[in-house]
Amino acid sequence: MEAEETYTLLIADDEPDVLSLLRAFFTRQGYRVLAARNGLEALKLAEEGPDLVLLDVAMPGMDGLTVCRRLRGHLHCPILFLTARVEDADALEGFEAGADDYVTKPFSLSVLEARVAAHLAREGRQIARAEVRFAGDITIDFRKHSVSVEGTPVGLTKREFAIVSLLAKHPGRVFDRDSIHQKVGGWEAMSSPQGVTEHIRRIRKKLLDAGADGEPIETVWGIGYRWKG
Fold first, then answer.
1. What pLDDT digit, counting tens, does each position of 52-103 carry?
2. How many CA atoms lie within 13 A of 147 on its CB side?
3. Which of the chain's ends, N or C, has fewer CB atoms near its CB within 10 Å?
4. Does 23 share its domain with 68?
5. Could you give the 3-state DSSP secondary structure of residue 57?
6. One domain, residues 16 and 115
7. How many separate domains does the chain show?
8. How far is residue 167's CA from residue 188's CA, in Å, rounded to a whole number?
């Protein structure tokens, strides 16, 4: 199944044969492939903004879990782990690190490509319209990672935009602080879920200072936060 448009995949695996096989296969399928032999290379190549990441868990040095946590500080695309085994505890730790899915080795290339295509399609549906206008004259450009109010840019940090993006993509859905903390990532910089409260306070102030008509992020007392839509 060929990619309908040119998507960029970042593939990180310390096994040369596996990395070469995946790079050749996905290149033939029409993808642009960034190939990393270790965690440090993966972090560097991630600066090119891949549409999806395939990440081996058991890499020496910086393992896949650590790389995933680091990537989630600034990267919002799907991340799929490649792993030889999945125990319940391992899966939970991976999802807490920010992974979207697991693919166990050995795997069929056609099945793996189908999983990749499904995640890209799901992501594409979420941001099919690059610019989405919300109540309060707020416009979010999910591709440019920018927010404006009546055309006036709002200077959000990467983490603040990640929180806005998460809530705005699921209007009406309530997220507690733990969920926001886990999904946005950045464990080193955001030491606890309580930090989410301060980030949301700053987001609200910036939106109001830019002229937003009301606050789009609603507090659901005792539960969490939701985007009013």
1. 999 988 888 888 888 888 887 777 788 898 887 655 556 566 677 777 888 8
2. 28
3. N
4. yes
5. coil
6. yes
7. 2
8. 22
